[in-house]
Amino acid sequence: MSDKSNRLIHQREIENLLIDYCRYLDRMELSKLAKLFSDDCHVAYGDDPKLIANGRAALEASLSRMWRWMRTAHHLSNIRIWFNGERRAYSESYVHAWHEGTGGNTAIIYGRYLDHLEMLDNSWKITERRMDMNGSDKGFKLPIPHTPRCEPPPDWIVPEGLD
Amino acid sequence: MSDKSNRLIHQREIENLLIDYCRYLDRMELSKLAKLFSDDCHVAYGDDPKLIANGRAALEASLSRMWRWMRTAHHLSNIRIWFNGERRAYSESYVHAWHEGTGGNTAIIYGRYLDHLEMLDNSWKITERRMDMNGSDKGFKLPIPHTPRCEPPPDWIVPEGLD
Amino acid sequence: MSDKSNRLIHQREIENLLIDYCRYLDRMELSKLAKLFSDDCHVAYGDDPKLIANGRAALEASLSRMWRWMRTAHHLSNIRIWFNGERRAYSESYVHAWHEGTGGNTAIIYGRYLDHLEMLDNSWKITERRMDMNGSDKGFKLPIPHTPRCEPPPDWIVPEGLD
To answer: What is the ipTM of this complex?
Structure first.
């Protein structure tokens, strides 16, 4: 099997892992979700200490906060994966995450997962996850950091005739 | 070709099939859409008899109901596929489906397709499709069943300081 | 390596290219974005001359218009790729694109990219891009053409009992 074919197999395994995170989170199967991460994982959904977890057990406990929502839907796309040798990779993916609160209120975030992954005991695990976002609707209140975006050059002028 | 590489090829074929369903539905090319299913398929978008079709011809007739919308957009993500031997598979996928009514009203559903697939005459077909949803916006009225979600443990308390 | 495995590798490369377009656009890294296109590319996001660019340099200049938005999020899905021989391909993909204006206003489009691709100097480039859309929310004002959708047959009647 060629190196490139082998890479495809590993990419698919990592994609499945990232998708399973979304599936387990929406179903609140947190012990299954936690097994997608390494024992000593570092996860930061933002800078607020409440959004940070060190270690798989802490992550599982921390994500119980998602029960404050009645329902959620995490739709993953734009998955990009790069390898660092045979057993390490990092990835970026986009998530469209919808949340429904107990009062019927909703919140949508256009987020991004920035992950480090490692092959451990023959399966890929997330060892580090950070999150940022391109934006959110007005229903979403958590202080998730913004994805970096280049500023316009000083001579840029607003185009006319475009809404 | 290794078994794992062969699997990748079949996964891609199944992904294309699931995507084509969305493409044909949004373009209302229903006879092309129907050919993605087996002759004797069973499709249930919900428990209401109006949302159930047995057989390819019944499915094609039934989906003509989508013309009550002016336009739709079905965006598929989180595609997971598992194989049962060489010629059978099942899959879960997420769909973000937007609908625009004749009065300019809109409806969004955060749904999930649960499919059984079979290799028939050398191409994959959907033999069974069920649908459920994580949720929807207020514009969506059909009684689609909810995706199962675990309840919090009895000692769970609402976290403070998180919206 | 079999032809089919080889195809998978090229499909992945093209998917990565299409995803990178979204990533660079949301980060407004326009010189990186422009390198995803051929020197002599033809890009038309609609029929309005302001939405058309001929050549890589013109495309880069033209897309500076996206700075009129504070932030954007382009989530790609339903990627379908077909090959014309070894070095040419075409593709369709869906984009859920969210935009936030300077006044906090937002605009969402349910769009579709229709691309021609070519392998040039050993990497895939977009040589031609057209865009259309299944629809948009009320915040989106640009005149993007609609995706073709079949009309109902003359004897079709609105189904009863379905919202």
So the answer is: 0.96
Q: Which of C1, C75, C95, C110 is the best mutation test for B, with the most CBs of B within 10 A?
A: C110
Chains in touch with B (3+ beta-carbon pairs under 8 Å) read A, C
Enumerate residues 103 to 142 of chain B having a beta carbon within 8 A of any beta carbon in chain C.
Answer: 106-107, 141-142
Q: Does A23 touch chain B (CB under 8 A)?
A: yes
Does the pLDDT value for residue A160 go beyond 90?
no
Per-residue pLDDT tens over the stretch C99-110: 999 999 999 999
Q: Inter-chain contact B75–C79, Cβ cutoff 8 Å?
A: no
CA-CA distance, B129 to B127, in Å (whole number)? 7
Give the Cα-Cα-Cα angle C136, C140, C141 (nearest 5 degrees): 120
Task: Express the helix, strand and coil content of chain A in percent, nearest 5 each.
Answer: 30, 40, 30
Mean pLDDT across chain C: 96
The pTM for the full model equals: 0.97
A64/B contact by beta carbon, under 8 A: yes
C-alpha distance from A61 to closest chain C C-alpha (Å)? 30
Alpha carbons within 13 angstroms on the beta-carbon side of residue C3 total: 3
Q: What is the pLDDT of residues C84-132, one digit of tens each?
A: 999 999 999 999 999 999 999 999 999 999 999 999 999 999 999 999 9
Distance from CA of A34 to the nearest CA of B (A): 15
Q: Answer yes or no: do A147 and C76 touch at CB < 8 A.
A: no
| pLDDT at residue number C128 | 98
Which residue of chain C is at minimal alpha-carbon distance from B6? C5
Using DSSP, state whether C67 is helix, strand or coil: helix
**Residue-wise pLDDT tens digits, B110-144:** 999 999 999 999 999 999 999 999 999 999 999 99
